[in-house]
Structures are given as structure tokens and as C-alpha cells.
């Protein structure tokens, strides 16, 4: 597709682009500390966190880039960033 000045791009979806494969660190929950506040889900720029049936949260590591924002913002310190092992 050729883009010119003032051109319009077609909308798309990132669901087809699994972007989590290059991260160096991955977030891991400590469910004993988790208060189920949902801040992690709200602040995740990749929308890779979703609510489970038991009201805890889980990661979709296909899309998580390991930025650590969730761990930084967690008021209960329930998320640890651990080195990704390939």
C-alpha cells in the first residue's frame, strides 16, 4: 500500500501479530498477595491481561511484551518480573 501525505490507512487488528515472543522478562502473579483490584488489567498497554472466572487475572503471554508496568503499578506487590527462559 502506498501512503502519501494526508493518506488514509485501513484499520487493522493486532490480534494477528503475536508480539510477546521477544520479551526478556515476564510477569508472574503471586495469587496469595493479589487483592483482585484489576489495576494490572487497566494499565497493561498490550491488553494481555484478562479476568478469570475466579476473579483473579491471567496473562496471555502471546501478547505480553514484558514491559513491567503491571508489576510497577500493583499496590499489593503481587506481580514479579522474572527472566524469560527460552
Describe the structure.
- The chain is an alpha+beta fold and 86 residues long.
- The protein has a single domain, classed as 2-Layer Sandwich (Alpha-Beta Plaits), CATH 3.30.70.20.
- It is built from 2 helices and 4 strands, in the order βαββαβ.
- The protein has a two-stranded antiparallel ribbon with strand order 1-4. The protein has a two-stranded antiparallel ribbon with strand order 2-3.
Fraction in helix? 10-25%
How widely separated are the two ends? 36 Å
Q: What's the CATH class label?
A: Alpha Beta
Q: What portion of residues belong to β-strands?
A: 15-25%
Q: What sequence of helices (H) and strands (E) makes up the elements? A: EHEEHE
With helices defined by DSSP (H or I, 4 residues minimum), what is the helix count?
2
Largest sheet: 2 strands, antiparallel
The CATH topology turns out to be Alpha-Beta Plaits
CATH architecture assignment name: 2-Layer Sandwich
Structural classification:
alpha+beta
> In which order are the strands of the major sheet placed?
1-4
Q: In terms of quaternary structure, what is this?
A: single chain
